[in-house]
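Sequence, structure tokens passed on for absentees:
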Amino acid sequence: MARLEDLETFVAIVENGSLTAAAKRLGRPLQSVSRSLSVLEQDVGVELARRTTRRMSPTEAGLTFYNRVKPAVAEIEEAKLQAGNRRIEATGLLRVGAPVFFAPAYIVPAAVEYMSRHPRVEVDLKLSDKFVDLVEEKLDLAIRIGDLPDADLKARRFGALRRVFFGAPSYFEKHGRPEHPAALVEHQCVVRSVSANDSRWPYKDGNTVKSIRVSGRFRADHGASMYAAVAAGLGIGFTPLWQIRQLVDEGRVELILIDHEPPPVPIHVVWQGGKLMPAKTRLLIDTLARRLKNARL
């Protein structure tokens, strides 16, 4: 029967990607870590990790095994702390998924505060604007902006992002201000060039949400370039307010069509359901919730 130490070792190997890194995290000799993996594989009866020159990745069976035993290992560790009347601490590696632009502004500052309070935690931040699979990416939790399609995940709502129409005073002086979103077809619009839907902007018309297809002479696949173009007077833009907050505060761009802004986009943290959420995960979620509650979104 597998020992708890062997299970802890396997979790560390998967999360750190190599025997050497796992040994360093656990504070154990490399040979001891290698022996624990061999003993566990003999006990389970299948290969759990595939060894390459520099890295070690879980096999399909190993990944399934990891996702089953990781919550159990965390629960046992916290039970040991409670039994000894010791304060439950945040320890170990925490893998967090987050959107590319949102993370530096909001997630990283929260992680800095969290890690200063919990020095035994490591944070591995994985950035992607896609709704990646938490199991495949071995994520403990992820921040998601938008409606949640996956009903199998547990979630906690942090707030919502306001989406706005905006332009530079120099553009409005030359071309005027649209009084209704339908008039955007008569204006130059700075559009993202990532997908076809980026040129279709949602707006509220009374109690109904509609959309309009816009176009313009300038397009870009990067947010900062789009905002610079709008600030330079090349056209009207549409984006979450937090991304252009500084431009608004500095007076370089102005908000328009405020009464027609589409509904705000929800922000959630999601994680896999389990009997017990590890302290490291719970405490980071609490930190994020507190900071985002007071953030200018």
Notes: The longest helix spans residues 60-83. The chain has a mean pLDDT of 87. The first strand starts at residue 49 and ends at 51.
